């Protein structure tokens, strides 16, 4: 055996469901398994161009898989797809002897297996032990098992309050932490009287689920509580904070942070687009994603939070989400102790060695007309772009046949505005072709 190989593990769903205080049931749990456990897994194809094997849930569109690698100019790696029982990628692999045998064969010629993952779970450490049993040295790009608690602790929205108390340069919005429904009603009422608008957030959530904004309108508290009691995302403790009004034309700053043995090794700047003040929709990635002043503030905050996490024993990728306030202050809202959903954009920037030259705009839920197919309507649009040298890719096509069909798209350009313009063009062309129009009509749309 010689050399090292990457084992790419997009274990988003089991990561989101791992937290002991988050017991999702019904539609909420099914939505996480379906969206994070299948659709978002496909972004991992763009994490790296190093020698690798990719774990993916069954149902990969092989034409799409070949196309995006050809467009990137890199060899398509082998992928292993375990039988879907739970819908959780690593758990299903651990139950599938045939998939394990296939994976073992794919790794057999390499001494070192470097496991790249969304974030640590108990199943990840079981998989690492299994691969070691096959005779490999295993390197995990996350906390070692003895420090697993650090990942759980930092991932809670409460942890950033602790860091802010210890580090005055890290700012958080004033708030109250409550542990039952009676306290929640009282805290909402008191905070609304003081601030006029508040956001209530559970310790663990997914892409804005588990959060809600409450204003001073009559019946607002009652309506919020009515909805929250029927949503299994809303588990205690719940943090009620002053809603920070967002500065215009900035987006919500976020940073992906790589923490190694020596400390912070890399910071990738991002700007999130959200709806209703909290629901995630898209992200721009790269130095050009934010105005320079906000980028400098975010970089400082990333190094400060990253150094604190490093001191606790954290290793691997993590991200911080923030709000750029109209008061010209940067507020840190939470830490996600994992790869963020935008890390495929960071992977492309590193692949191209263009972290300072390009900005990527990643859109995760582009709605498309029912009946749209990859072969007839999506592929022709991207083939025309690729022929023109445009760096744009469909990063997930697994939602094509859902009741509300969607795809994920990413585009790169020297500026954020140009990248977003490419995405808008892609959407217009797909819609035109799906409705029987021609590419020429799409160009004029």
TrEMBL record:
SUPFAM superfamilies: Glutathione synthetase ATP-binding domain-like. GO terms for molecular function: ATP binding; metal ion binding. PROSITE patterns: ATP_GRASP. Residues 162-362 form the ATP-grasp domain. This is ATP-grasp domain-containing protein. The keyword RNA-binding does not apply. The keyword Nucleotide-binding applies. Keywords: ATP-binding, Nucleotide-binding.
């Amino acid at each position: 055996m010689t050399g090292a190989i990457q084992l790419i593990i997009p274990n988003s769903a089991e990561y989101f469901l791992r937290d002991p205080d988050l017991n999702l049931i019904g539609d909420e749990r099914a939505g996480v398994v379906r969206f994070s456990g299948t659709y978002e897994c496909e972004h991992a194809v763009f994490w790296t161009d190093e020698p690798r094997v990719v774990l993916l849930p069954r149902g990969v569109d092989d034409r799409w898989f070949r196309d995006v690698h050809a467009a990137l100019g890199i060899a398509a790696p082998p992928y292993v797809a375990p039988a879907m029982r739970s819908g959780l990628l690593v758990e299903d692999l651990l139950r599938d002897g045939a998939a394990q045998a296939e994976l073992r064969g794919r790794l057999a010629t390499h001494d070192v297996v470097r496991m790249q993952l969304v974030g640590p779970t108990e199943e990840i450490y079981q998989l690492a032990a299994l691969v070691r049993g096959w005779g490999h040295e295993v390197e995990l790009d996350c906390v070692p098992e003895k420090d697993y608690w650090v990942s759980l602790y930092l991932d809670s929205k409460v942890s950033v309050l602790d860091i802010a108390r210890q580090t005055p340069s890290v700012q958080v919005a004033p708030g109250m932490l409550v542990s039952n429904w009676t306290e929640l009603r009282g805290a909402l009422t008191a905070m609304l009287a003081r601030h006029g608008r508040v956001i209530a957030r559970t310790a663990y959530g997914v892409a804005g689920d588990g959060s809600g904004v409450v204003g001073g309108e009559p019946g607002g508290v009652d309506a919020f509580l009515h909805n929250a009691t029927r949503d299994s995302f809303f588990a205690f403790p719940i943090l009620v904070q002053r809603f920070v009004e967002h500065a215009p034309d900035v987006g919500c700053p976020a940073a992906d942070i790589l923490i190694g043995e020596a400390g912070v090794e890399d910071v990738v700047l991002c700007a999130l687009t959200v709806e209703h003040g909290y629901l995630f929709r898209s992200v721009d990635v790269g130095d050009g994603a934010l105005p320079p002043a906000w980028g400098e503030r975010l970089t400082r905050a990333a190094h400060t939070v990253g150094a604190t996490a490093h001191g606790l024993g954290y290793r691997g990728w993590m991200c911080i989400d923030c709000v750029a306030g109209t008061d010209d202050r940067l507020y840190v809202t939470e830490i996600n102790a994992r790869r963020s959903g935008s890390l495929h954009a960071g992977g492309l920037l590193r692949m191209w060695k263009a972290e300072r030259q390009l900005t990527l705009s990643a859109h995760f839920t582009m709605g498309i007309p029912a009946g749209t197919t990859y072969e007839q309507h999506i592929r022709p649009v991207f083939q025309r772009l690729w022929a023109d040298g445009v760096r744009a890719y469909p990063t997930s096509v697994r939602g094509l046949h859902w009741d509300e069909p969607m795809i994920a798209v990413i585009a790169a350009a020297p500026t954020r505005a140009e990248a977003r313009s490419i995405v808008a063009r892609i959407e217009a062309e797909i819609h035109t072709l799906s409705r029987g129009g021609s590419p020429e009509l799409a160009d004029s749309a």
